[in-house]
């Protein structure tokens, strides 16, 4: 910094003010300092700047996976506000989840975005009590008093089921994520409530939840086929399950009305275009950073839980009408194995 001051012909304090972004510097002097910095290749000591500022200008992010739309938007929103994002994947593993959060806190990030996986987080309570702003994204932190932003999970499922009911479907099935997960629980509960409000029975075979994977989906589809009145419509709880359903049903997907929660990439280009409930992923990322910045500016502000609306993309898959009851029962009887 002394070299910069000497070469630019200004006081050392002036260089310090320019480097730290202070506004009370003559424009002509600031220009000389900046050009000298560029010519000499000077780089400020970031650790010293953090000590003086009391801020690292970084936001930590503990994510279930990296590279998604909300994470991308959050990074750009943070950058526009002068913050860099330090992100790591927890891979839905409780031990790694704890390790990632503890590691980010040790790096003294100014705030933390967390995508909870359902595990308890007692180590995070102390950080929040010490003043670390934390925002939960996609699902709340149930054991930590933190701001949160989520999608309207129940509203999305309700809209999909009501659409299918309006098309005449009465035997509707649901395949969703484990109900130990906040989103999985809310979506399954909303599905059951919709059927009950419509005066329809909720049979065991009509609702399947569990760890998403090929085996779980195969078992769910098998139980659907064995029902006395096989479902004529299906709602899926997330895009992982939706893709498994599409793969396993193959061409038979056209015989069943299907509505998927979560956008599916190129869903409109499939041979049988799929209707989807779409989350506002950009809104999730943008709101998460906004909540963090607001908490940094006003630490004592009231906690906020923001629910973002979802939207529907209606395509051919949800427009398949239910077959006449008599024909459906005859078809099922013909498929039943002989004794």
In CATH, the topology of the largest domain is named Rossmann fold
Number of domains: 3
Distance from N terminus to C terminus (CA atoms, Å) equals 90 Å
How much helix is in the residues? Answer: 40-55%
Question: What is Rg?
Answer: 27 Å
Uncertain stretches = 46-53, 326-334
* Major sheet summary line: 6 strands, parallel
| H/E element order | HHHHEHEHEHEEHEHEHEHEEHEEH
CATH architecture field of the largest domain = 3-Layer(aba) Sandwich
CATH class of the largest domain: Alpha Beta
Kindly estimate the percentage of residues that lie in beta strands according to DSSP: 15-25%
Mean pLDDT: 86
Number of strand elements: 12
Judged by helices, strands and strand pairing, the structural class is alpha/beta
What would the principal axes of the Cα set say about the shape?
Answer: elongated
The CATH fourth-level homologous superfamily of the largest domain: Response regulator
Organism: Motilibacter peucedani
GO molecular function: DNA-binding transcription factor activity; transcription cis-regulatory region binding
Protein name: LacI family transcriptional regulator
InterPro entries: HTH_LacI, LacI/GalR-like_sensor, Lambda_DNA-bd_dom_sf, Peripla_BP_I
Overview of the molecule:
GO terms for molecular function: DNA-binding transcription factor activity; transcription cis-regulatory region binding. It is built from 13 helices and 12 strands. The strands form 2 sheets. Strands 2-1-3-4-5-11 form a 6-stranded parallel sheet, with helices on both faces. Strands 7-6-8-9-10-12 form a 6-stranded mixed sheet, with helices on both faces. It folds into 3 domains: 2-44, Orthogonal Bundle (434 Repressor (Amino-terminal Domain)); 57-145 and 282-301, Rossmann fold; 153-274 and 315-335, 3-Layer(aba) Sandwich (Rossmann fold), CATH 3.40.50. With 339 residues, it is α/β, with parallel strands linked by helices. Residues 46-53 and 326-334 have low confidence and may be disordered.
């Amino acid at each position: 910094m002394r070299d910069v001051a000497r070469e630019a012909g200004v006081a050392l304090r002036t260089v310090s003010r320019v480097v730290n972004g202070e506004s009370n510097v003559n424009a002509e002097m600031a220009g000389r300092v900046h050009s000298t910095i560029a010519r000499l290749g000077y780089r400020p000591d970031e650790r010293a700047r953090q000590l003086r500022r009391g801020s690292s200008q970084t936001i930590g992010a503990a994510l279930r996976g990296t590279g998604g739309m909300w994470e991308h938007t959050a990074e750009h929103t943070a950058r526009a506000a002068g913050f860099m994002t330090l992100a790591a994947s927890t891979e839905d593993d409780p031990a790694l989840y704890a390790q990632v959060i503890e590691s980010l806190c040790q790096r003294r990030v100014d705030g933390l975005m967390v995508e909870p996986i359902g595990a308890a987080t007692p180590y995070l309570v102390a950080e929040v009590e010490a003043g670390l702003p934390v925002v939960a994204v996609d699902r709340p932190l149930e054991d930590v008093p933190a701001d949160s932003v989520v999608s309207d999970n129940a509203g999305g499922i309700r809209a999909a089921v009501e659409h299918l009911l309006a098309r005449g479907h009465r035997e509707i099935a649901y395949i969703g994520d484990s109900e130990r997960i906040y989103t999985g629980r809310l979506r399954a509960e909303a599905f059951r409530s919709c059927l009950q409000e419509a005066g329809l029975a909720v049979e065991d075979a009509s609702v399947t939840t569990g760890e998403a994977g090929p085996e779980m989906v195969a078992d769910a589809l098998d139980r659907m086929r064995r029902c006395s009145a096989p479902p004529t419509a299906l709602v899926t709880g997330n895009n992982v399950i939706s893709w498994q359903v599409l793969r396993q049903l193959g061409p038979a997907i056209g015989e069943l009305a299907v509505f998927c929660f979560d956008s599916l990439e190129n869903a409109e280009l499939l041979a049988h275009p799929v209707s989807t409930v779409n989350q506002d992923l950009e809104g999730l990322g943008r709101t998460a950073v906004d909540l963090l910045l607001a908490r940094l500016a006003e630490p004592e502000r009231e906690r906020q839980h923001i629910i973002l609306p979802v939207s529907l993309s209606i395509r051919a898959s949800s427009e398949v009408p239910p077959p006449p009851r008599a024909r459906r029962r005859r078809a099922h009887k013909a498929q039943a194995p002989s004794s």
